[in-house]
Specification:
Family: Belongs to the VMA21 family.
Structural class: mainly alpha
Order of helices and strands: HHHH
Number of helices: 4
Number of strands: 0
Distance between the termini: 66 Å
Largest sheet: none
Pfam family, one: VMA21
Number of domains: 2
Subcellular location: Endoplasmic reticulum membrane; Endoplasmic reticulum-Golgi intermediate compartment membrane; Cytoplasmic vesicle, COPII-coated vesicle membrane
Membrane topology: Multi-pass membrane protein
Shape: rod-shaped
Helix content: over 70%
Radius of gyration: 34 Å
Strand content: under 5%
Function: Required for the assembly of the V0 complex of the vacuolar ATPase (V-ATPase) in the endoplasmic reticulum.
Length: 116
Amino acid sequence: MSGVMPKFAVASMVMWMAPAAILYGFHHQLFPGVIQLSSSAQTLVSGFLAVISVNLVIGFYIYMALKETPAKEPQPDAAFLANAKASINRPISSQVGDDSQGKERWSRKNLRRVLF
């Protein structure tokens, strides 16, 4: 996870610089063969190449993200595990009997009050 931010920063910079460099190169005829194109063709080709360069950078960034090794799986809290194991080992019959009878009496009393 520590390498995520530098990779993101580099990918973001390249996503801005690559299209700008392509557009600059076409505008100043730095690429070979650009002089033979009309101005509208130069604009179209440079625009398409700029868009393709951004998509290539995004694709490369996704590839790098998928190639990363997964982080170590988080471990549960030791106190939580101890409490969970203790609650599993408690006898169930005494807990259920007390709770269910208490709730049943309470609901019968309230039912009588409501009905009568």
